[in-house]
Each structure stands twice: as C-alpha cells, then as structure tokens.
Design brief:
The structure is a single chain. This protein is of the alpha+beta class and 729 residues long. Helix content is 35%, strand content 27%. The protein has an 8-stranded antiparallel β-sheet with strand order 12-11-17-8-9-16-13-14. A 7-stranded mixed β-sheet has the order 2-3-1-4-5-6-7, with helices on both faces. Strands 18, 19, 20, 21 and 22 form a 5-stranded antiparallel β-sheet that branches. α19 packs across α20. The radius of gyration is 27 Å and the shape is globular.
C-alpha cells in the first residue's frame, strides 16, 4: 500500500473524533514564508520528501504561483501528527499574503478555528500582518505566532543573543498590541488571546533551513539560543534541523494550543450565524453532532479539469456523503452530491463521508458560490463573509475572436463564483466586460488565467480606477415628481457619520439583523434614537430613513421607492459611480389613489430624480481610492523613494530607520500608483522593497474634480454637461 493511501486512511479514521481535529490557517504578510513553512509541515507529516521541503512549494499548485513565487489561491491539505501519544488530524489552509488576494484569507478564516500568524523576524509586523489578524479575530479564530527567518538575524545582521532577544520581544509586543486592540470589544472572548513564549504560543525558526524552537521544545531538547547561534554560524543547519525539526515544534503548538471543533464551535456559531439559538439545528452545530442535520459553509470554489466544480468548506453539523440532496442558500431546488473528498495539497482524495468538524471537498453542488450555506433542511444561512477591502481597480476584457464570446462570458461568470472579491459587469450590447478587483496584480492574474486555462485569447484595456461619490453637507428638501405628475416625493440627503459608515462596511450593521439589535448598534455609533427607529433600508453604506407619518398607500409603494433609491445610489449624479456614506430621509409623499397610476414607471423615476437632485444640493463630490505605501530602502535611495510617493499626489507620513534600511510610509491615490512597481525599481536601482495596502476612499482635490468627472462621463458615453442645480421647494 502506498504511503499516500496510508495517510488518507489514517485521516479517514481520525475524522470521526472531533476532539483530536485541528482546523487551522497559516496567514501572514506577503513573503514572510507561509508556503515554505507549510512545506516543512507536509514533510514532517510524511507527505513530501524532507529534502525538497522549502523548495517544492507544494501548496502553490498553479503554474502562475510557481512562476511569480507567491501564493494566489488558498490551498487545503489534511495531515496527521502524533502529539502526546495521540494521533491528531490537522486540516490546514495555506493562504495568500499579497493584499490583492485578501478575499481568500477572509474566506479561509470561516473554515478554521485557529490561525498560525507568520512574521518575518527582520521586517516585523507589517500592514498585512495586521489585516490577517483582524480577519482571523473577526471570525472568532484564535491566533498563535511563528517568527520566521531568525537565521537572517544571525547570518545577515550578525546579532548576538541579547540583540536578538530584544528584537524578537519587540515583534511579540507589536503582535500582542494588535490582538489586544482587536479583542477588547469582543464580549464573547473571555480568555486572553495574546501570545507568549511562556505559554508556548510563540515559535521561532527558519522555514528555509527547516529548524524551529519554542519554549516547550527547548525544555524537551535542551537547545537554547546561544547554541542555535553557534550552529547557524558554523553552517551546521542540517544538524539544527535534525535536533529540533520545525514541523514538530509547529505541529505540537497546533495540537496543544488551538481549539478543537468541540471547543470552538459553541463560541463561533453565535458569531457567524444569526438563526434561532434555541433550535435543534443550533444545538447540533454547537455539539459538532455528526448524526444531526447536515450544515456546511462553502468557503472556496475551485475547478478540477476532470471532476468539474469543487466546493470546499467546513462541515458544522451532520455528515456529508455521496448521493445526498441538499439545499443551497439563496437558490431554489436541491443539488445532489456527486462525490466527497479531502484535500491533499493540489490533489483531492475521495472518501466515503466527511463528518462534522472537518473540511470537505464536494462535487455536485452546482449552485453553490463561495459563501453559500449548504444544508439538508431549509435554514437561516450563515452571515455573509465580509471582505475588509473592496474593488478599487477595473479593466475591460474582450475576446479577440467573436466566436469565443459565449465561452468568455461563461468563464467570467465562473470567475465571479470562485472569487467574490472580483466584480464582473457583462455588457451584452458592446461585447465589453468589466472586471473589478483589489489591485493591478489581482486583475493581471485573472486575465492570464482566462487565456492560459481556458484558451481564450483576450484584449484587456488600460486599468481604470473605481471612484465613489459622497455628499458633503445637508441638502434642502427636494421634490421628485413622477412623469404623470400624480406622485410626489420630498427628500433630503446629508452625510452619514463616519463611524456608522465604517461599521456598515465591516458588516456589523445590516438589514439582516433583528431590528432591535440594529437600532442599538446605530445608536451606539452616534445616531439619534428617532432616526435609528425609522431605518427603512440600507444599500451599500447608505441609510434610508422613512420620516413620514400615516401616508396612504405608501406601504405597498415602498418596494418601488427602494428600487428607485438603489438605482440612484448605484449611479451617482456626477459620474454614475456608486454613492457612499449618505443618509437619505423621505419626509413626505403624495400618492395617486389608483394603483395603476403609481406603478414602477411613475415611482422609480420620481425617487431617482429626487435623490439625485438632493445629492447635488448636498454638494456631492468625487472620492478616489487611496493606498497606504511602505517602502524599505537603503539610506542613499531614501530621497528617490519619498520622491516617488510625492510625485504621485501622495503624502509621506513617516520616515525612520529599521536595521540597516530606511522605511518610508505614506499614502497615495490608487490612480497614480498604476505602474509604480517599475518606476520605484528604476528610481532605487532595484534596491527597494515595498508594499501597498488599500486604505479606503478620500475626497479628491477640488481642482481635479471637474476634469476627472468629465473623463469618466466621456468614457461611459454620458453627456459631458453636469446636471443643473435644481429648484427647491
């Protein structure tokens, strides 16, 4: 029997005992060594050869991942590890570190109970470290820390034991500060989730040279940092690896300090599911009951050239097996499970069944998308997976050959299904399709994959930046009339408080919440009681308030009012870009007695016109997306690096020394950052390393507004004259 077959059989045997299961994700800033670390763990579990670990990058299964040397897709693997005489099943997800693929990290966090955060010893906690920690903690996932590349402190920076200790303590303090800041407001987390060397929740080592230590491992092996420095300097890395293998240290830490599903699910279910807590279903999910009704949350959709579409996700209750007929949230009818499996890196191994507490790979769920709830009975779906950043850049894609058009449309729809952070707009009339994503690299990877995997040659347009529109002050009351003049709506618009906008973006305020809970949350963020009571609808980050009293027929017309409102907010009055952060009040309405005279053709245009005119009166302005930029560069190139930010309408916020490098931090508009990578390379003779992080939207400078609005209107084929100021009532 092959080694792999043995591992699969052992995994199957361990699946039924959730107490010995650990579901974990490895998350970090880009290039801090997650995939190399995962290789070590696979080698430790006997799944790849020890010699090739660290170079094989077994979890980067796509060709473009190997070429670019970065992880693009989250990859799953199941392995076993013996800890304290008990064999444990570890379901691991290796997640991307690049900011453009943050959506994969958020989705992976929904499937796991623990996150191993990897930090580079030289670079320390970076912006993306903070983002992945926030993504983990918002999902109620417990963190531990592994400080990687410690060998660089010894060989490159020539640090002695004391300096090294200071640096490592500094990294731990930074990470703990982030954890403390994020867990303060979480009432359901009563234990201290900060990491510490004493507790054994911090590991150190070098994924490249395959050695690692933690406090428990040092006590077990008698190794200390002095000895590690001597062996590292004497180039005896193989001996280091043999005496204290990285995989044992990390996998021991995983088994000891991460919660198993039985401990984790009672905490996590109330966080991610708003159904009836008293129901039988809630009970089976909290108990991880493999005999209960099936409940699974799909966190990833992938394509297998032979088996077709594969939905991977966490089974919270029941057991999934071939032939089951299952409901999928948001779709009619049922889907039939064709096969069930577990992941072994790039390959899927079929098994008979996967019980609660595990991560399963299922074929046959054709209606599922990343984020779907799959169940054997109809149920309240899980909370949607909220992504911290939103698309900021768009490219047009068209097929070179018209014959490929149907296939391209199908592929784009598939892309949107696999990656919810991508937005696809298909224009059937022009044959032009717009893809919006998190950054240049995100879109580049998607378009390359369409060409490479689907064999469709495509032409792509220049990257276009996504803007937003937002009111700057309170408007006067504006009247909107229907085309037949029989219906009138009286509306005002004002800016929504920033705290409320941010809370909506994080998904902590939504129309799916119970009304009382939503009202309390809005009041906590600063909205007055009367306004919070009258919230009728939330669209994006815009809140619609119904301040009317006892108007006849308004109830049955409200659906159309909301439709008109959404149309107006999706295409703002300046440049048909989405509106954000507005509070819209309906003060009064006059409606025709006869339903036939207050249909969609009358109400929708009236509301749309009123909202647009009120927005114009509220001095609506264009917002542009901005990015935080961090550049690490040798001293002599510091001027060139800060010049690159300032020359792009950016602002340098901070400059400081870190090790032998200068760090330049600032912000710049996304629009100006296109092509930044080649410019910074030539400005610093290729000696800078940098990263960017999307930082939301800000109001564009007044002198640039007219020109930019005109450009967008022209590009969209709109009239170039801006809408007139309006009459007021």
């Amino acid at each position: 029997m092959g080694r792999r077959k043995k591992i699969v059989q052992e995994c199957e045997r361990l699946m039924d005992n959730p107490v010995n299961i650990r579901n974990i994700a490895i998350a970090a800033h880009v290039d801090h060594g997650k995939t190399t670390l995962t290789d070590n763990l696979l080698a430790g579990a006997g799944m790849i050869a020890d010699e090739t670990a660290g170079e094989q990058l077994a979890m980067d299964t796509e060709e473009d991942e190997q070429e670019r040397g970065i992880t693009i897709d989250a990859a799953n693997v199941s392995m076993t590890h013996e800890y304290e005489d008990t064999n444990h099943l570890i379901n691991l997800i290796d997640t991307p570190g690049h900011v453009d693929f943050g959506g994969d990290v958020t989705r992976a966090m929904r499937a796991v109970d623990g996150a191993l955060v990897v930090v580079d010893a030289v670079e320390g906690a970076m912006p993306q470290t903070e983002t992945v920690l926030r993504q983990a903690l918002r999902e109620g996932v417990k963190p531990t820390l592994f400080i990687n590349k410690v060998d660089r402190l010894i060989s490159e920076l020539q640090e002695g034991p004391e300096e090294m200790q200071q640096r490592l303590v500094g990294v731990i303090q930074d990470v703990n500060e982030l954890i403390r800041g994020m867990t303060e407001e979480m009432e359901d987390i009563d234990e201290d989730w900060t990491v510490s060397v004493e507790k054994g929740t911090v590991g150190f080592g070098s994924a490249l040279y395959k050695w690692g230590v933690s406090m428990p491992s040092m006590q077990r092996t008698g190794m200390d940092f002095g000895e590690i420095i001597d062996l590292e300097r004497a180039d005896k890395r193989q001996e280091l690896h043999e005496r204290t293998p990285l995989s044992d240290v990390v996998l021991d830490m995983v088994c000891e300090h991460f919660p198993n599903p039985v401990d984790a699910q009672p905490l996590r279910i109330p966080r991610i599911w708003r159904g009836d807590e008293e129901s039988e279903l809630a009970g089976t999910m909290r108990l991880v009951d493999e005999d209960g009704e099936l409940v699974m949350m799909v966190t990833d959709i992938g394509i297998d050239p032979h088996a077709g579409e594969i939905a991977a996700g966490r089974v919270f209750s029941g057991t999934i097996e071939k032939g089951q007929e299952l409901y999928i949230s948001g779709t009619a009818g049922k889907n039939r499970v064709q096969s069930v499996g577990i992941y072994m890196g790039g390959e899927r191994e079929e098994v008979d069944h996967v019980p609660a507490g595990n991560i399963a790979a299922v074929t046959g769920l054709k209606d599922a998308i990343a984020g779907s709830t799959v169940s054997s009975v109809e149920m309240t779906p899980f909370e949607t997976i909220e992504h911290i950043s939103e698309p900021v850049i768009t490219k047009s894609v068209e097929a070179k050959n018209m014959d490929d058009l149907p296939k391209l449309i199908q592929t784009l729809q598939q892309v949107a299904k696999e990656d919810p952070t991508i937005q696809i707009e298909i224009n059937e009339d022009t044959g032009e399709h717009l893809i919006s994503g998190q950054g240049e690299l995100h879109l580049e990877v998607i378009t390359q994959r369409i060409e490479r995997n689907q064999g469709i040659p495509v032409n792509t347009g220049e990257p276009i930046v996504v803007f937003r529109e937002a009111p700057q002050q309170e408007s006067r009351e504006v009247e909107g009339r229907s085309p037949n003049n029989h219906n009138r709506f009286y509306i005002t618009v004002e800016p929504l408080q920033q705290d409320i906008t941010d809370t909506i973006k994080l998904g902590d305020i939504s129309m799916d919440m119970p009304e009382l809970e939503r009202r309390e949350e809005l009041m906590e963020q600063g909205m007055d009681k009367d306004t919070a009571q009258n919230v009728e609808h939330i669209h994006g980050t815009n809140v619609f308030i119904d301040d009317t009293k006892g108007i006849q027929h308004l109830n049955e017309t409200m659906e159309l009012v909301i439709e008109g409102l959404e149309e107006a907010l999706n295409d703002g009055p300046l440049a048909a870009e989405p509106v954000e952060g507005s509070l819209i009040r309906l003060h009064d309405a006059r409606l025709h007695e006869d339903a036939i005279h207050r249909g969609p053709a009358q109400v929708i245009p009236a509301v749309r016109q009123a909202v647009h005119n009120a927005l114009i009166d509220a001095r609506i302005k264009l917002l542009e997306p901005i990015q935080e930029v961090r550049i690490d560069v040798p001293n002599e190139h510091m001027g060139a690096a800060s010049g690159e930010i300032q020359g792009r309408r950016g602002r340098v916020d901070d400059m400081y020394q870190e090790g032998d490098l200068m760090v330049v931090e600032g912000v710049a508009p996304v629009d100006e950052m296109i092509g930044f990578s080649s410019d910074i390379r030539s400005a610093t003779e290729g000696r800078a390393s940098w990263n960017t992080e999307n930082a939301g939207f800000r109001v564009m400078a007044d002198n640039l507004q007219p020109e930019t609005i005109n450009e967008i209107r022209e590009r969209k084929g709109m009239k170039t004259e801006l809408p007139e100021r309006v009459e007021y009532f």
